[in-house]
Write a sequence for this structure.
């Protein structure tokens, strides 16, 4: 029996997923969480084999959860199930150790099959997303991404510099490079564009 933890902030979607997956003879939903914090508590108590998570949720997102599990519980397989076919998200998911990246408009049978396949060590990417990601490259460096994320949260250059242990001039350069790469007129426009593309 493969034990599953579902992480999804929309209650109806969460219930429907649980009901569908529990119909499979070899799958058992052992926990349901609405956010990353609940999920981590259930991981500790239920010890699932596979975590199926959305990306955008209140608080930390599903990719942050995946990265935490990669670090703290590397034996747990993570499947991302989302509505967002964004190439930037795919890159971040791969870095976080996600085993499968699937879109919510797929068939329930395909999700159940993906669970079985990742338990055998396979990696799965939705074909439509794979094609889009192949044609689109994340232009931001990790430093640019970090500075841009903090700028989007409303921090000044001075505050960002203190947080990332860089000079204000270096932070200004990273933000300027990010704006140029994203063809944005200011830091907020760059932040919003990067979010839309899934680079943050």
């Amino acid at each position: 029996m493969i034990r599953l933890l579902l992480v999804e902030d929309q209650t109806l979607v969460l219930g429907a997923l649980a009901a569908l997956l529990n119909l499979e003879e070899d799958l058992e939903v052992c926990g349901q969480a609405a956010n990353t914090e609940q999920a981590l508590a259930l991981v500790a108590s239920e010890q699932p084999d596979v975590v199926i998570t959305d990306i955008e949720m209140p608080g930390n997102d599903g990719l942050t959860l995946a990265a935490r599990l990669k670090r703290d519980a590397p034996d747990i397989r993570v499947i991302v199930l989302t509505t967002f076919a964004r190439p930037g998200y795919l890159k971040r998911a791969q870095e976080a150790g996600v085993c499968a990246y699937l879109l919510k408009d797929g068939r329930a049978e395909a999700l159940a099959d993906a669970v079985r396949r990742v338990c055998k060590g396979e990696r799965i990417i939705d074909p439509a997303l794979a094609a889009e990601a192949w044609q689109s490259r994340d232009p931001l460096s990790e430093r640019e991404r970090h500075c841009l994320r903090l700028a989007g949260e409303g921090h000044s250059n001075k505050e960002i510099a203190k947080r990332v242990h860089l000079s204000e001039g270096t932070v200004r350069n990273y933000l300027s490079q990010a704006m140029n790469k994203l063809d944005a007129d200011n830091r907020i426009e760059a932040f919003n564009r990067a979010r839309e593309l899934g680079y943050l």
User: Anything to note?
Assistant: Strands lie at 2-7, 27-33, 50-53, 77-82, 100-103, 124-125.
